Amino acid sequence: MSNPALIVSAFLLCCTVAWLPLAVPLLVKIGWRPSRPLAMGDKLKLIFSLYLVIPLVLWGFSLQLNQSLSTYGLRLDGEGGLQILAGLGLGLAGLAVLFAVQIGLGWLKWQPTHLTWQAILVPLLIGLFVAAVEEWMFRGFMVTTLLPLGLWAAAVASSLIFAASHLIWQLDDLSAAASELPGLWLMGMVLVLACTLSDGSIHLAWGLHAGWVWGITVVDSNALITNTGKASEWLTGLRGKPLAGVMGLLFLAATAAMLIALDTPA
Q1: For residues 212 and 95, is the Cβ–Cβ distance under 8 A?
Q2: Spatial distance between the Cα atoms of 104 and 28, rounded to a whole number of angstroms
Q3: Tell me: the pLDDT tens digits for 16-40?
Q4: HSE (CB half, 13 Å, CA atoms) of 210?
Q5: So what's the pLDDT on residue 173?
Q6: Does the pLDDT at position 1 exceed 60?
Q7: Which residues contact 264 (CB under 8 A, 6 or more apart)?
Q8: Closest CA relative to residue 85, chosen from 197, 195, 208
Q9: Backbone angles phi, psi at 13, to 5 degrees
Q10: pLDDT in tens, 208-242
Q11: Of 83, 87, 143, 166, which sits with the fewest C-beta atoms within 10 Å of its C-beta?
């Protein structure tokens, strides 16, 4: 099989088939229905079951295609670790600026609360795990596989699949999920840029992605920020989703500009 689109399609099909034996019993156990929203705990169980399957399928495809893990941007060395840390810092700093600007404008309100170490550490571990799997899958495997079609085509296609994949977790409210699709697509493009500027390594994108997941999870799960209602949700994010608002899109664009600026020699 040499057609890039067929390889990616086969990969997605294999992930789905391999996940079903784990997903179906979980869905039956929780009594899931398409119109019923998933509780956060149930959603995490499903996400983790899928994300445990994906690396195994990736490994199988790498063997079938006679490619090493480094082909997909995974480099287990000190430089990779430093790139993850740099991405984490940049991701958290960007979120801090995004929220600080909106708090300063009176659009959002900061609600200080005592945070336990579990409230900080657990989201970090979740963010690192989720980001690792998604970056290896989307920016590593998919972009590399689709690269014969051209970098732009590979970036656009992989980011579209990345955005669409998030619909799985919001089948009860597809209209709300759809409002995030442009932001998720742009997020995918920014992460492709991070990989491109890192010579194909996924580690900077991994850290950046993990930093965003970490920061947003801590803020949301502890209700640290609330909307004051002084600005349209189209600005701050529909239903409290930053990527479903103009400020979120500007935040991603600013992150892309920062990545380019940091990579440009003085």
Answers
A1: yes
A2: 46
A3: 999 999 999 998 888 777 667 777 7
A4: 29
A5: 67
A6: no
A7: none
A8: 208
A9: -65, -45
A10: 999 999 999 999 999 999 999 899 989 998 888 88
A11: 166
